[in-house]
Every structure is written in structure tokens, then in C-alpha cells.
Design goal:
By secondary structure, the protein is of the alpha/beta class. The chain folds into three domains: 82 residues, Nucleotidyltransferase, domain 5 (2-Layer Sandwich), CATH 3.30.420.40; 139 residues, Response regulator (Rossmann fold), CATH 3.40.50; 220 residues, Nucleotidyltransferase, domain 5 (2-Layer Sandwich).
Length: 458
């Protein structure tokens, strides 16, 4: 059998392979295979090949050929970045939003000129990419330029992206020449060109390009890069690309992705007029938050310790000892009905906590004329669609009802979606795949997404 595109999603716990055909005419999802991610064996190829075998088994075929092979990855820690700006609420925050939206896991954020301890952390953490920002255009120049040279002096052989004050660009080019790092350093538009102006999209694109170029340096990914004919980007970045594509078609939305190691929330929306008038700091249209402490396998203990085990036992109609046994024998992919019901409880906590952390809130500021209500953070009140993706929310039963209950019980709290939202499930579990397909064929990607979400044509 031959297909147009094979897309591998190499997650922290599970590797999923999706096959697609007829991209140029009538895009069709052919089938899916999965296997556990084998980072522990220092070779994610093992898990990938097993997932392809599972796909062939599910399709009942002996051979599988493809014209193109794409991949997304969050294995081996995914895309690890360190971010350095001038003022936290301005350039550092803007750079952080760009990095998160591109699908990175941020290890370290600093403001001001890098200290010796800051530089030691960079050396110890060994990020995949270092992002240096600072200063509005034609404003403060010294911090970003000094930080650029300090990082170059470390000679870490790590890609660096400069997205600060454009008045420094010529000096940055001189530093690139001085340290002979033409292949490691990229210059792009200022991520914070003026007060209260975010410009994150150019930086996100450079992050993806840099990730593709240097992915072979990440643990366990060198073999995968050899298979890729075109694109490979971080899995959360691919989900964000799909969310942005869908927002153009559906309107304001938020996507919830509960994984084995993290829970990601992607919102693509404008602030309502009411909230925009009282917002303290600007927020990006496309925003991602990643909760590194909330996962259903790698970080399940963080959730389990917060649960009322007695209430869980009553809900599952088993003893507390049996609940402990379920947790102690947790699997990346639950098999029995009881294991799935338990995973659903973990998923509920991860989804609700992450959504509450992602949403902004009202804040009272006290002035000489009295208290004034303001807003801070991402406004989700205008969200029309909540999309469920990732292995847990797409494969566990009744997750639409689970999310609806979360929204209902948090109604009128913070800047959250209202009960009027429509909940859509990524039934084929292809959102990340569609996000990377959108890089080569956005029309096909949108059609695939609409089918998976069971959204009829307008």
C-alpha cells in the first residue's frame, strides 16, 4: 500500500504514526498506529518502527510506502529553550510567549544583563536554543548586545536567536563574524518593538526553522531526522499551527492537550472589547501555556498527591488500596475499563488545573481615586470552541462531558470560557499531524481537521 504522507508524532510517552492520502484532491485519513516512545533505550526509532508495524497491522497490510515523511517531537524533553530579556513584563515576557507558542519547554528566563550564575545555568542546562531579546526598537541597546556577547563567549555550539532592539542588528552581525558562528546565530524582528506591542510570529517561525536544522543534536533524534524528507517541528508547535488554522475557519478557540508528561493549553483569540479596555499588559492572539507538573504518566504523581483518594475510591467503586494499586501499576496506554476510568480522573484534574492557570483574571488596582478593576492575563471569555486533542482526551470515554462539567462549575470565575462554548473532539487524533501538514498543504490540513472534529462545511 502507498500513501501520500506518513506523519510521526513522537511524544514523551507514546509514538503515534498517522497515514494520509489524496492531499491534492480529497484528503483522507487512512489509519493510525502507536507504540510507547523508546527514549529510555536511547533510540526512538525502536518505538517509531513498532508504531509503523502497528499501523500496518491495523490496516491489514504487509508493506507500506509513502511519498513524504513528516514528524513532530516532544521526546527527550522536546525543544528546550532559555530566554533572556530586559524587563520581565515587557521583552522577556514577549520572548517567553514566542518560545512557548513555538512549542518549547522553557528552562530558564532572565532579565537584565546576564550574571555569572545565569551563565552557569545556561551551561548546565544545555538548551537546544537560546533566545535573546531586549529593548524596544531604537530604545535601550546595551543589555541585549551585552548578553549576546556573553553567551557567544561561552562557545557552547548552541543555536542562538536574536529578537531584540533592531538598532543592535549591525553590531550583532559583527559579533557573529567575530566569533565565526554564522551557522548558529539568526537575527529576526524585535519580539517587542514598541510599548504594549507583541510581535511573536516572526520569532516562532525562526524557532521552528532552527529546531528543524539542529534537531539531530537532541538526544535520540538523529536517526529520525534521516527519515524526514521535509519538516519536523515540536509537537506543541504543530498543535498551535493547527489551532491557528482552525481559528481562521471557526473563530476564537482553545485547544486542550493532556499528555503523558505535560498538559498544554493553546488559545487563539482576541480579547473582548470590555476586557481589552482594562487589560494591564498585552497578550498574544495565539498563546500556549505548558504545565510541566501535570501529566498522566511521567508526572502522574503530582496529580495523584492532590486527589482525595477516598472520593476516587467511591467514584470507581473500589477500595483505597485498589486505587493505590492502580497508580502503582500505571501504564502509558490504559487497557482495562478500570484503568481508563482512573486515567479519566487524572485527566480531569490536569485539564481543569491547566485551564485555570492559562486564563487571566480580574485584579483590583488602588489609586488616589479609589479601587479600579483591571484585568491581567489571557481573556478566554470570547472563546466559541473548545477542542480536545492528545491521547487522553481523544481516546478516553466521555471526555466531552468531562470538559463541559469543568467549564460549568467554573462559570463566572476568572476570564474563562462560558457555558455557551461548543466542545469538539479530535476524533482521529490528528491535530498535531494536521499542523505540520499545513506547512506543505494548508487546505488539505483544514479539511482533515474539520472531518476529525466532525464539523460540517459552512
Amino acid at each position: 500500500m502507498k500513501v501520500d504522507v506518513l506523519v510521526a508524532e513522537i511524544g514523551s510517552t507514546t509514538t503515534v504514526v498517522n497515514a494520509f492520502s489524496n492531499l491534492e484532491s480529497e484528503p483522507t485519513f487512512i489509519g493510525q498506529g502507536q507504540y510507547r516512545t523508546t527514549v529510555d533505550l536511547d533510540d526512538v526509532n525502536i518505538g517509531l518502527n513498532k508504531a509503523i508495524e502497528d499501523l500496518k497491522h491495523n490496516l491489514n497490510i504487509a508493506e507500506l510506502e509513502y511519498d513524504d515523511f513528516l514528524a513532530t517531537s516532544s521526546a527527550a524533553g522536546g525543544l528546550k529553550m532559555s530566554v533572556h530579556g530586559l524587563v520581565y513584563e515587557m521583552t522577556a515576557k514577549a520572548a517567553k510567549e514566542a518560545a512557548l507558542g513555538a512549542g518549547s519547554n522553557i528552562q530558564n528566563i532572565t532579565v537584565g544583563i546576564l550574571s555569572e550564575s545565569d551563565l552557569e545555568k545556561i551551561k548546565d542546562n544545555k538548551p537546544n536554543i537560546i533566545l535573546i531579546a531586549g529593548g524596544v526598537d531604537y530604545g535601550e541597546k546595551i543589555t541585549a548586545l551585552t548578553n549576546m556577547e556573553k553567551v557567544l563567549e561561552l562557545e557552547l555550539n548552541i543555536p542562538i536567536i536574536y529578537c531584540g532592539n533592531i538598532a543592535n542588528n549591525d553590531d550583532v552581525r559583527s559579533l557573529i563574524k567575530k566569533y565565526d558562528v554564522q551557522d548558529l546565530v539568526s537575527i529576526t524582528d524585535n519580539v517587542y518593538p514598541a510599548i504594549d506591542v507583541l510581535n511573536v510570529e516572526p520569532v516562532r517561525k525562526i524557532i521552528h526553522d532552527t529546531f528543524e536544522k539542529h534537531i539531530t543534536k537532541a538526544k535520540g533524534m538523529a536517526q529520525i531526522r534521516e527519515k524526514i524528507k521535509t519538516h519536523i517541528i515540536p509537537t506543541p508547535g504543530a498543535v498551535m499551527e493547527a489551532a491557528k488554522l482552525l481559528r481562521e475557519d471557526l473563530n476564537n478557540l482553545v485547544a486542550i492537550d493532556v499528555g503523558g508528561a505535560t498538559t498544554d493549553i493553546h488559545s487563539v483569540s482576541n480579547d473582548s472589547e470590555e476586557i481589552a479596555r482594562i487589560l494591564i499588559n498585552p497578550e498574544p492572539v495565539a498563546k500556549r501555556t505548558v504545565e510541566g507538573d501535570l501529566g498522566l504518566f511521567v508526572n502522574a504523581l503530582n496529580i495523584y498527591e492532590k486527589l482525595n483518594i477516598e472520593a476516587v475510591a467511591q467514584k470507581l467503586n473500589i477500595t483505597k488500596e485498589a486505587v493505590d494499586n492502580l497508580f502503582n501499576n500505571l501504564k502509558p496506554i490504559p487497557e482495562t475499563d478500570l484503568e481508563k476510568d482512573f486515567a479519566r480522573i487524572l485527566c480531569e484534574y490536569a485539564s481543569e488545573t491547566s485551564l485555570l492557570r492559562h486564563a487571566g483574571d480580574y485584579k483590583n488596582l488602588y489609586t488616589i481615586s479609589g479601587a479600579k478593576q483591571m484585568a491581567e492575563g489571557k481573556d478566554l471569555t470570547g472563546i466559541e470552541y473548545v477542542i480536545l486533542t492528545g491521547g487522553a482526551l481523544t481516546r478516553l470515554p466521555h471526555t466531552e462531558e468531562l470538559i463541559a462539567q469543568i467549564i460549568e462549575r467554573n462559570a463566572n470565575k476568572k476570564l474563562l470560557p462560558t457555558h455557551k462554548v461548543k466542545i469538539l473532539k479530535d476524533h482521529d487524533y490528528i491535530m498535531a499531524s494536521a499542523g505540520i501538514i499545513s506547512k506543505i498543504n494548508p487546505e488539505a490540513a483544514l479539511k482533515l481537521l474539520r472531518r476529525s472534529l466532525h464539523v460540517s462545511k459552512n
